[in-house]
Amino acid sequence: MADLHTGVGRQRGALPWPRPRRIATLSVHTSPLHQPGTGDAGGMNVYILEVARRLAEADVEVEIFTRATSGDLPPVVEMAPGVHVRHITSGPLEGLTKEELPGQLCAFTAGVLRAEASRPPGHYDLIHSHYWLSGQVGWLAKERWGVPLAHTAHTLAKVKNAQLAAGDRPEPKARVIGEEQVVAEADRLIANTRVEARDLLDRYGADPQRVAVVEPGVDLDRFRPTPGDRPAATRAARRRLGLPTAGYVVAFVGRIQPLKAPDVLIRAVAALRRCDPRLADEVTVVICGGPSGSGLERPTALIDLAASLGVTDRVRFLPPLTGDALPALYRAADLVAVPSHNESFGLVALEAQACGTPVLAAARGGLVTAVRDGVSGVLIDGHDPDDWARVLARLLPDPARRAALSRGAERHARDFSWQRTVAGLLAVYGEAIAEHRDRLAARVAGDPALTCSW
């Protein structure tokens, strides 16, 4: 895809791109303060949080606008030095689903515009919106403030509908139209991978000159292998989490909903038990996360599925983990499974690999970038439980192969960092700002009425 930008810091002539001083980040439906793995909080929350922190470390102030969901929240929270989260009241504080939020976009936009109106003119240099709801707000704000808009979709309705999980609801036409509008209006569309960039071009007719690829990263300080004796560290992590110290552990981490397909892993263990019951009896499947999206309609669906397949004794459920407990789970696992029907990138896969744990992933979307097939893990074409069971049967009893994949996983993850992501974003931001200034200068030069007469 040579026609796409890569966000690696190109220069204009001999001068670098201008650097933003302040950025308004829009995240309507979920806050970076929310715990990933529950409700609508997931990889996007991690992305916004990590990028904002590192932008601030690079002397770029970030103000994140998100919807207030509790009366206990203060209007503004300092998340980190140079990063503030502003809670905008728009609709009921609780009880609104993501699908109901389009009706509150007017109220949210008004709150964003009022906050900016209290600042000196030109306070923000750029807007970065996340997900299509925020893109709708950013589209109006960029016109009002006279600044460029960068947009990251994170998921795309047309892609999701083309790869819909069984039992999941298709995304509504209103979202498709909303995404098409944002694609047409944004100054830069920041794709997580070249696969996502191609979807923007082919499915949404995006202008190639406005599409930039900037891959997400991973916190390599938090997610890392335990130094020293890996088997001993694995046993210690399992004891901490209350998992069996003997046998094999295969973990799923994420929101529990059809899109993420955790049921595939449970069905795979059931298939493994039919073909190799002795091996299956040594496997513990860990499902870590909370119900989300259409998964909220049947919060016990996975428990019921395990019971119906006769593998309840092989499945453990954990709530979303915080702090260093999440890296501990990755280290406790022999394999981490990411069977999603679609992922714009797949941060869980990268986090697991950074901890030295190989990943089994569906060969979908950004996962083909996040996982290096045969080197850091295995990509599986599709969601047939028998295919997943065959891979488990091949890898679990082969410690030498898993050790090789573990080394490859660690090496692969080192190619990604949030510092690298932010460097790419700053290049794209600077390019958008420079083009915006050029357009403004051209307007002034072409219309004497726009110049000062004194």
Number of helices: 16
Share of helix, binned: 40-55%
According to DSSP, the number of beta strands is: 14
Low-confidence regions:
6-15, 450-454
SSE order: EHEEEHEHEHHEHEHEHHEHEHEHEHEHHH
Q: Averaged pLDDT, please?
A: 90
Q: How are the strands ordered across the major sheet?
A: 3-4-2-1-5-6-7-8
Largest sheet: 8 strands, mixed
What's the alpha carbon Rg, rounded to whole Å? 23 Å
Tell me the span between the first and last alpha carbons: 50 Å
Characterization of the model:
The chain has helices at residues 43-57, 105-117, 131-145, 157-162, 173-185, 194-204, 230-241, 262-275, 277-280, 301-308, 325-332, 347-354, 367-370, 385-395, 399-414, 418-446, and strands at residues 22-27, 61-67, 76-80, 83-88, 126-130, 149-152, 188-191, 211-213, 248-253, 283-288, 315-318, 335-338, 359-362, 377-380. By secondary structure, it is α/β, with parallel strands linked by helices. The strands form two sheets. Strands 3-4-2-1-5-6-7-8 form an eight-stranded mixed β-sheet, with helices on both faces. Strand 5 (126-130), helix 3 (131-145) and strand 6 form a beta-alpha-beta unit. The longest helix is centred in the C-terminal third of the chain and has 29 residues, at 418-446. It is elongated and about 80 Å long.
